[in-house]
Amino acid sequence: MKRFNFKGLMAPVFTPYSNENGELNIDAIEPYVKMLKAKQVEGVLVNGTTGEGMLLNTSERMLVTEAWKRACSTHGVTMMVQIGGAPFPDVVQLAKHASRIGVDAVLCLPELYFKPKTSENLVAYMKEVAKHCPATPFFYYHIPMFTDVHVHMPAFLNMAETTIENFCGIKYTSGDLEQGSACLKEGRTIFLGADTILCGAVASGFDSFIMTTLNICPEMAIKIIDNMKRGAIEEARAEQCKLNQHIASILEHGDWVSAMKKAFRERYPSLEVGQTRPPLRF
Questions:
Q1: Where does this protein hold pyruvate (predicted)?
Q2: Which domains does the chain have, with CATH numbers?
């Protein structure tokens, strides 16, 4: 298995569509990568929640993945791709594709209809997926507010590490910082996915982050992290309050993905990313 030692900021990128017809706009991807790199964001997650991966067909997901892979390789940016949220044969196809083109890591949602209820069930499903990309670092995507899968993550991690050879960690998108902190352990990579608790998460020991606002205002996260690292707690708290207020103002315009994509379009009008697909609010 290839090594995965990424730490720092990874943006869960929006999938670019044409403003005219809603088709994929592959041409926007390389300038998007360059913009993130210039703002100290050194990694991207493709086809996640923010990227509407579950609203793309399999061919589109592979096409988008290939375009991001080319751009990331050119500009020295780490790339993870989310392969779940589809029928099992399609997830397997996406796993094989990710492995074949050499992405740096894969992330996988649980089965979304026949939902796993136990760590054993979840590990068994992840193992069946991971064996189709055995040389690629493999991560589980914990986002219970969307999946309604509430498996205890510390227990899951302990079991997955002894069962799945290429398992490396999780993306932890939950406001339960107590459970999230219990996941932290030497040798694991635990990505925080919850923007609004960044300050507390850094205090707890998180050092890897996949948060939607890294697309829009990464400088705010950078300030919070830097202030926490140098012990400037009050400054970090103040910046977290500003970030949370900014998020609240963005969400006045709709659901999470649509509102965030609208904020992104407004900040970077030269990057044509289009609107969101149904059933998301445009």
A1: 50, 210
A2: 8-267 (3.20.20.70)
